[in-house]
Amino acid sequence: VRVDTGVRLAAAGSALLGAVMALASSVPGMATPDNLVDSPDVVFHLNRMRSMLSSRDISSLGATGFYPSGFHDLAVTALQVHPMPLVTAANMVVLAVTAIAWPLGCLAMARHVFGPRPAALVATAVCSASFVAFPSYLLGWGVVWAQLVGICLVPGTFALVLAATSRHTEVATVGRGAAVAGLALALPGQFFGHPTGIVTVAGLAA
How far is 64 from 76, CA to CA, in rounded Å? Predict the structure, then answer.
């Protein structure tokens, strides 16, 4: 789909703006890359990462039954690319998801909802990092890192739903066939990020 250069520049600038704002609100609270959140849930997540590393098994079907492992898979992959403390890997994945996946997904969704309007893209980037409820709150509460990842993926997945089903093809950024193929890949990732993300996407689609 042909896109005006001004819209492309607005999208790129908005993505950068959203990332900077997300990091500006998250990094001070984290203080240092190896800062440990004071929460019992952290023990579970770090133990799961350690178990995946030692067993070389990153399946969501563990010995205790199903638990979505998208977050842990990302962290363990990062550890194999560049060895670092478990806590640092977890914190870096959280920052990457909230500063990259979340604002990019919001921009993709806004692009399909509002069309190629630079002002809407800029406003979306600002809004994506302006609310304490999400993603900032989930960075420390719980901590529900798996659910954080799942919800951060929702806007991008929903953008593909819009591209695959909308009759207004003039606002689409990808063709219907490409959107369907993208959904075939995105939905399993959405589920293993956290099943609540699938429920959220289904509710928005309905």
Answer: 19
Place of tokens 């990092």: 129
Q: What does the block give as tokens for 163?
A: 């591209």
CA of 10: how far to CAs of 59, 72, 125, 159, in Å?
A: 39, 33, 10, 18
What letter does residue 57 receive in the DSSP assignment? -
β-sheet bridge partners, residue 61: 66
Pairing mode, strands 65-66 and 61-62: antiparallel
Distance separating alpha carbons of residues 131 and 20, to the nearest angstrom = 14
Q: What are the residues whose beta carbons fall under 8 Å from the beta carbon of 25, sequence distance 6 or more?
A: 129, 136
Q: Tell me: the pLDDT tens digits for 69-118?
A: 899 999 999 999 999 999 999 999 999 999 999 999 999 999 988 888 89
Model confidence over 91-101: pLDDT tens digits? 999 999 999 99
CB 17 within 8 A of CB 121: no
Give the CA dihedral 88, 94, 99, 100, nearest 10 degrees.
100
Give the global pTM: 0.87
